[in-house]
Amino acid sequence: MSEDTSPAAVIDDDIIEKLYQLSQRYHGNGLYEPAIRLLEFLIRHDPVRAGFHFALGKAFHGRSQHREAVQSYRRALKLGLPDIDVHLYLGQCLIFSGRFVEAGTALRQFIGLAEAQAGQETLAQQVQGAHQLLDHIVMPRLQAAGGTRPPSGAAAPPPAGASARRHESLESTS
């Protein structure tokens, strides 16, 4: 009679993992709404799995729901997500939200963590992109508002591929 009949008790770990993989496929194919619904379902069943919150943040980010993405990314960090990309994505969403001081902090955290893992070419490109965001979006906005001055020196070239498209879309909002 005291048997637990909650939905989480009847879904085994293999099914949870398959559903998570399905959410990643949805996201990878630009089907953000089904990914969001599936990830919200998974979070109800395993609310402390940081990867679910990170994936939910990315799906919200894909739908330009930046406020929700920020909440999900922060929850993933609070739960101890080891993926450093969350800081980069958080910074991007904070830029879209006009929260430039927080964006600068998140981007600097990403850069610091990425530089500590030197030698990975993918990270080097992302670090260049983060520097671009700081130098050309965040710092000028802070300077215009009477905040800190932009760092001196030449800016890094924009990143290639999807990161470049994201960077271009961010620049078009400035």
Q: Which residues sit in consecutive blocks of at least 5 with pLDDT less than 50?
A: 149-174
- Put simply, the count of helices is 9
Mean pLDDT: 83
Largest sheet, in brief, is: none
Strand element count: 0
Helix content: over 70%
Proportion of residues in extended strands = under 5%
Radius of gyration from the CA trace? 18 Å
Using the alpha-carbon principal axes, give the shape. Answer: globular
- Give the distance, in angstroms, between the N- and C-terminal Cα atoms: 61 Å
Based on helices, strands and strand pairing, what is the structural class? Answer: mainly alpha
Order of helices and strands: HHHHHHHHH
Question: Could you give a short description of this structure?
Answer:
By secondary structure, this protein is mainly alpha-helical.
Walkthrough of the structure:
It is a single chain. The chain starts with 6 loop residues before the first helix and ends with a helix. Helix 6 runs antiparallel to helix 7. The longest helix has 24 residues. The C terminus is likely disordered. The protein is an all-alpha fold and 174 residues long.
Relevant terms:
174 residues, disordered C terminus
Q: Any chance you could write out the topology, listing elements then pairs?
A:
Elements: H1 7-10, H2 13-28, H3 32-45, H4 50-62, H5 66-78, H6 85-96, H7 100-116, H8 121-144, H9 162-172
Helix pairs in contact: 2-3, 2-4, 3-4, 4-5, 5-6, 6-7, 7-8, 8-9
